[in-house]
What we know:
Blueprint: H1 2-12, E1 20-23, E2 34-37, H2 41-47, E3 54-55, H3 67-75, E4 83-87, H4 92-103, E5 107-112, H5 114-120
Parallel strand pairs: 1-5, 2-3, 2-4, 4-5
Helix pairs in contact: 1-4
Amino acid sequence: MKKIMLFMLALLGISNADVTNVAVTKAFLNKPIKIIDIRTPAEWAQTGIVKGAYPIMFFNEKGEAKEDAFLVRLNKIVKKNETFAIICRTGSRTTAIAPFLDQKDYNVINLQGGMMKLMQDGYKPVPYRVSSR
Length: 133
């Protein structure tokens, strides 16, 4: 089911060129831009999160998309005209979700490579704290 949903979300953005795709780097994290971490709480707890990132789960642990709940939380953090970045474990989920967000008129940057690339490049995430956001 998760693969079908990812495929369908990716199809939405095939013809959409407004999504910005950027290879995630430690230097990018120094930019004054909000980062939304769309992974699950178990993933946040396992690896930690980018310092200052906002953890908002998009897919639950069963791989089910929770678009409405995600958008409600997202709208409390970013304005429609504000550019922000999204990150996941490897970049697969954000590649699927970025076109969906673009169609909803958000200015989104997809951080390709995700947390795994950052950590391979020597980035040290901060521990995830349930009450942090």
